[in-house]
Amino acid sequence: MDSPAALSEYDMIIRLGLGFLAGAIIGFERSARRQVAGLRTHILIATGSTLLMLLSIYLPQFYNPLRNSDPGRIAAQVVSGIGFLGAGAIIRLGNNVKGLTTAASLWFAAALGLAIGAGMFKAAGAAVILGLFTLVILSKLEMKLFPTVRNKLLEISYRENSPSTKEALDIIKVSGIKIQSVDFNQGSKNKGAKLRLLVSIPSTTDITSIAKSIKASGEVGKVEIKEKY
């Protein structure tokens, strides 16, 4: 079996350019969704991992004593090290966790760079197409079939101290919002009552419309929807 041809500077520049392009494609989609890690982050990761893969291949070829070394050694460190950067993209807001897809896309961008650096152009191209399909098409399909649920604190303030809460609760139940807990504080003569609900709201639910409907019912003075911490 013939040994692979040594990398030229021209080959390296082409592969770095392709790594830049692959990172830009994935990063553009993340930036369009206003994610914490966007265009520049993905470009730097994909291009940087391409450079490290080129370095893994180049060193054994350039230095004679290293001809029997493992070209995948640096690549392995990239795979494990990218996890620390991906963890920084994950944000926890109360019971909700955001950034998992962005963290996965960072790891994916690193894998693209390594593949391009190793000269696996067809595989990297196919991976870019599959990655975009996952981020764009499957994202819409997943949201439609399995809408995410957000935990919120719904506070309804009444003008009266002994109001009927049935109408507001009926509106909430009909809208598809799941009530986890109910806390009712009866107000004094000079202060209205307050109904506090811990609810699970699907991402497809129009919260503003529901809040307006609740406010128009009974003796409701104010409706507030807050994050649950």
Distance between the termini: 62 Å
Order of helices and strands: HHHEEHHEHEEHE
- Unreliable segments of 5+ consecutive residues: none
Shape: rod-shaped
Helix/strand-derived class? alpha+beta
How many DSSP-defined strands? 6
Total of helices? 7
- Please give the radius of gyration in angstroms: 27 Å
Number of domains: 2
Name the average pLDDT: 79
Q: What amount of the residues lies in strands? A: 15-25%
Question: How would you characterize the largest beta sheet?
Answer: 4 strands, antiparallel
Account of the protein in words:
With 229 residues, the protein is an alpha+beta fold. It folds into two domains: 9-145, no CATH class; 149-227, ACT domain (Alpha-Beta Plaits, 2-Layer Sandwich), CATH 3.30.70. It has seven helices and six strands, in the order H-H-H-E-E-H-H-E-H-E-E-H-E. The chain has helices at residues 9-32, 39-62, 72-87, 100-117, 121-145, 166-174, 207-215, and strands at residues 91-93, 96-98, 149-158, 178-185, 194-202, 220-227. The strands form two sheets. The chain has a four-stranded antiparallel beta sheet with strand order 4-5-3-6, covered by helices on one side. A two-stranded antiparallel sheet has the order 1-2. Strand 4 and strand 5 form a beta hairpin. The termini are far apart. The mean pLDDT is 79.
Short characterization:
The chain is an alpha+beta fold and about 230 residues long.
List the topology elements.
Elements: H1 9-32, H2 39-62, H3 72-87, E1 91-93, E2 96-98, H4 100-117, H5 121-145, E3 149-158, H6 166-174, E4 178-185, E5 194-202, H7 207-215, E6 220-227
Antiparallel strand pairs: 1-2, 3-5, 3-6, 4-5
Helix pairs in contact: 1-2, 1-4, 1-5, 2-3, 2-4, 3-4, 4-5, 6-7
